[in-house]
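Many introductory courses stop at the sequence. We go one step further.
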Amino acid sequence: MNNKPLRFAHRGLVQYAPENTIEAFQAAIDHGCEGIELDIRLSKDGIPVVVHDRSLNRLSDGKAPKQICDMTADEIKAVDIPFAGHLLPHNPPVPYSESEGSVATYTPEQLEQFRKEDKRITHIVTFEEFDKWFESKTEDVTVEIEFCTDGLMKPMYEILSVSKNINRYIIFSGNDSTNREIHSVLNEKGRPDGLRVGMNARRITPENIDFIKNAGLYEIGLNDKWFTPEDVKMLEELNIKVFSNLGDYPEWWETITSLPIAAFKTNYAEAYTEWLNKQ
């Protein structure tokens, strides 16, 4: 069996622009990725913004340490995000270093090699701005929207319910309380036609299996080495697709291409594609 999971650029194609920026999303589209994964949080004034961390401290090189929830959307959008020092190299590090979330890590010496004299800057956008930008894209691309905190579903519902991109979106979270909030709002207001719902479970456990079986999920995210072929078969019988969370190393690439994995969320879409084309 030679399965080819859809390639979801994790936070965009981060070899070409800082994560969760329009430039990184455009790069993913330009390089033929079938999907994009992005993250959202809630600003102080209740506006969903496209960012993963609790603050912009890392992306701004320490110049914006305030929490996202303590900044207005306009304040967040005004922070300069430099390209220099925030682009990953083309290939995963060797040897691969795993963390709990299976994100590749680098030594300070390795990272210094990736820093270039790049004067470009970019900025965070609101999700509504992303939605309007994505509306103009005609490519067949699916977007996973990860809710990184509670309180997002009600303002997101207002945007999603009128979005022309509704059939192209999958909403989900890796937080149990946020997943339950998503389903509570959808049960109350009704699921907009075409909207798909996922869950970043990371692994199948006795604690989450009942929710998984009864939540009407389209897909579930599972971490590399944390699921088995039996898990995939069980989810397949429930008509739930499996998305592999990262696992950016060839040994794992061999695994996912031997299983009915629907999609692969990766920081290294180009390197994975090159590897795949050689097989």
